[in-house]
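Hi,

Apologies if this is the wrong queue. I'm a grad student, and the batch job for Cytochrome-c peroxidase from Flavobacterium ponti produced an output file that my downstream script rejects. I'm not sure whether the problem is my script or the file. Here is the sequence I used:
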Amino acid sequence: MKKLHFIMSMCCVITLFSCNEDDNYETISTDTYPNVTNTFGTNLDLNNLYNYANQNIPSYITKDNSTENTINDKIATLGRVLFYDKNLSSNNTIACASCHKQEFAFSDTSVSSVGVNGSTGRHSMRLINTRFATETRFFWDERALNLEQQTTMPIKDHGEMGYSGLNGDLSFDDLLIKLGAINYYKELFKFSYGTEEISEVKIQKALAQFIRSIQSFDSKYDTGRANAPNDGAPFNNFTAQENQGKNLFLAPPVFNSAGSRTGGGLGCAGCHRAPEFDIDPASKNNGIIGTIAQTGIDVTNTKAPSLRNLMRMDGVLNGPMMHTGGITTLQAAVGHYGTINIAPGNNNLDPRLTPNGIGQQLNLTQAEVNAVIAFLKTLSGTDVYTNMKWSNPFPN
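Support response: The file is valid. Your script probably expects a header line. Output copied below for reference.
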């Protein structure tokens, strides 16, 4: 009886160990998904999935917009393939990763990104820590209600990826048929969702999970914040200049009746909120209302990416900043907020930039500018640029 009881107990353990769909313990034969193996080789090992679902998140990071689409390793793996697959464009030349490149913190160094029928109307924003933000809307003008909706909008855009169904373009349904005929997608959708059926909702869910998994918490700032009681306390790993810059970033300014700063900080954190450095959902435009085409004005841009990983550790920016791509140095970015001019026609300027109805004058000293720049540099890590879980799974 003891022997039988032991055998039954072991069977229960083996069953639990191999059959839980949320775990990756069950060994998958290469014969089960031969087209995945033939296409991706060792770049995609379904027996050893990367950890997307349970990455380490610092305790001081509290914002999380993934609750409606919880990250799953299998589905995020499918999202990785979709993100890098040029088959998602009408002429097989453009992928999501064409405009959001890992080596530039998932942004683009070009002012506008090249699509199948032209260029993007706005600069491609960085996709860092999109999960850790209160603002759920996407694109600079927030026209997508959430990341899931956003993921297929570039695919349906005539200029970007070409499946608009308009102006002679094929439709998104045509893309679904196209993907359904690709053998590795039959296998990956079955692996991820339990069925070969491909739908827009499944594509959106997978892409959003992969994008939300892209996180960066290995910066000098994070090292300091982990050992501090709050954002405002001095960080013991910061230089005096970096701590000064942090204080200036966090503290609100004091203005006189003419809109001129007489004390306090710069108030950056009013819109870019520490420690996630996400954009306040209530933010309006920041005074930059130009367009890449330099025709007319655009006052609808009210969203911004996290300020994390503005630049690499070598000091090189991850592309130009703002929706126009018109600001190319941190000094120019800080300087823009130093003197806000209320341009004719700008009826959507953030009121925090117009104390007493007048464009703010921060009266920055060079030492203050240098300190804020030094602080912004502490928000960059290294892992996001080289981690294989976010890399291109297709062989070169």
